[in-house]
Write a structure and sequence with these properties.
homodimer; alpha/beta; Molybdenum Cofactor Biosythetic Enzyme, Chain A; Maf protein; about 25% strand
Amino acid sequence: MYTAEIIAVGTELLLGSIANTNAQYLSRELNALGIGVCYHTVVGDNPERLRAVLETARGRADILLTTGGLGPTYDDLTKQVVAECFGRKLVYHPEVEAGIRRFFETAMHVPMTENNLRQAWLPENCTVLPNAAGTAPGCAFETGGVHVLMLPGPPHELECVFSREAKGYLQGLSHEVIRFHDIRAFGLGESAVEDLLGSRMERMVNPSLATYAKPSEVRLRATARAATEEEAEALLAPVTAEVEAVLGDYVYGVDVPGLPALCLALLKEKHLTFATAESCTGGQIAQEITALPGASAVYRGGVVSYWTEMKASVLGVPRDILDQHGAVSEPTARAMAEGARRLTGADFALSVTGVAGPDPDERNNPVGRVFVGLATPTATYCRHLELGRRQRLRIRELSVNHAFDLLRRSLTGLPVE
Amino acid sequence: MYTAEIIAVGTELLLGSIANTNAQYLSRELNALGIGVCYHTVVGDNPERLRAVLETARGRADILLTTGGLGPTYDDLTKQVVAECFGRKLVYHPEVEAGIRRFFETAMHVPMTENNLRQAWLPENCTVLPNAAGTAPGCAFETGGVHVLMLPGPPHELECVFSREAKGYLQGLSHEVIRFHDIRAFGLGESAVEDLLGSRMERMVNPSLATYAKPSEVRLRATARAATEEEAEALLAPVTAEVEAVLGDYVYGVDVPGLPALCLALLKEKHLTFATAESCTGGQIAQEITALPGASAVYRGGVVSYWTEMKASVLGVPRDILDQHGAVSEPTARAMAEGARRLTGADFALSVTGVAGPDPDERNNPVGRVFVGLATPTATYCRHLELGRRQRLRIRELSVNHAFDLLRRSLTGLPVE
């Protein structure tokens, strides 16, 4: 099996200005191609350190992928250093120049500045990997059994060049396939999962089974290697079945992108719609569902009733409920969900009201107290959470996941409360 | 100056299940302490590879920080490998056991499983770094001039242990300070910025000036090293002033967390409120503003009018506008903003309607066509964007930033359209 190292070049990563999401993207893609990723390395815009990193990498991986440092600015050094390290001259590629000029004309609608032509210098005898999303093309070459791919740094350009160009180059190399299935569960802790599955997990090698703690769910990944996809899948089938049997209805899906996408698919299948009424989650349920293509088929819309008065005036929460129980209460959560259903005509409505912090509310509800409501055509439900003194964004994230869990339980006929 | 390497241990990173946000967090924190981060490395749950990575790292950095692999499960190998590599025995810390038991009782409300006690084994003669957010404590020790800090992997635990415990340990070590200022601009491309500032940037060493391309803004960082904070600041002052002068009102702030936070601060200062009416951004403006503590002082709430009918029924967009111009149009954007203002009584309201893709809308508006509206007490504005065939989430992100840019221009008396 081929092994790969992903080398990100960029001082902004070492300063913490951005996270290395490129390595995450490439890792997922390479694993799917049956290429095992052994290392990620990040190094700054520093030629000596980059050279040393490349020397180490070529001794421990078959495929080196660099990201970043291909742009038009003076600190973009990757090509020079890689070319030097692997004994290749940089030569001017007129066809790349033409592509850069075309990109400026058709996509940028601004005049090209001359420094952009630096991007037409690439190693001799390389495979050019054109960049339809930007001006810096990637390239690939092989020297002494090591394949080197240089890819642009801006994530949308990287993804464009990888998926359209680099993937095809790599597909020719691999002989073994890795397949994995992600089993996703909500409502259980990681230790509890390992208590239920622990001894089984320890003895497993191929397929292997590992847990990944997430802020508010548990994910298990079963991974198998084999000569063909079919053999790998045959190894995986009994493992995923066993995990699903042990964890029961905490499991919400296998190889699904998450609770929002699952809810979207369930609603679509049943030709049902939903709406939202959010207070402490401030629109995040709406944002997460509408981030998914096709949301318009099932999501009608919602109200962010951040200001208490909006709960009454827009959602129609009775004022005596607000006066008597307060904005953060079970009766308010129920009335918000019912109000959102009424306002939008949707079949289902989710609501959230709670205290995300950092301070308790004016009625002294503690940070982490959250009520999640669900109004359905036949009944209204409410889940009362005490999430404790966590960070504001963690409390919001957990609350959003609880809301989607309520909805998926209701849509699949499971007990909701 | 001390240099650091951040070593993340976890196969889930190499599989691409998560991004290495821990390295980003630590890099930011270490730079602020005057510790230069030279490398990030990611390695899987593999003792041989981890050992080799540690050997390389101790030869090129003064401070090694590991993240992950401290938990209770069998693939948590960091402590064993680090202890072996640095010639330390692991010894049982009864006071750590007491802390783990206490955490389960007070925060988890579930019985502790026995495997959690593995976390009480730590290297002999180390400084224990207690973990108030979880059960796996960190630790720190020094051997032969190299400082090793082991920190837990779950981000909220890492941040808790670092800020409360590890930071103090590191503060004792550093003798030089690094200070930087981030100058943030919206509405200009990276090449344009470099065209304006390029030659100046190339000759600068201390302070240095670098650009960071972001999806829809440009960030410049001026960095200075000196013996004291005052000297570093004196080096930085003329540079930031010059950049601000050259880029003019594209600059929206220095050392501000982003456009949403800037808008929040401006509104708070002026005792003004705002509201939102979102279609293609699906609640993301609301979500971004309410992610910030203190949002309730300025944000009244909003409507996610994803379904066209809600634009009329809830926001009061006249039906003849919707019939004649369609949901994605300038008149609709204006009416949505005015409707949100009316509905909430807020001083300002932002609206967004557009086509985020992947497909054109039913009136054949192309992907990337977006109208951003702003209703103020005196006038209503609209910005028409053609963002092209970008990814759905990029179009949403750009639209959200344009909305906040409209608001900050209006609040600071700059030309809006």
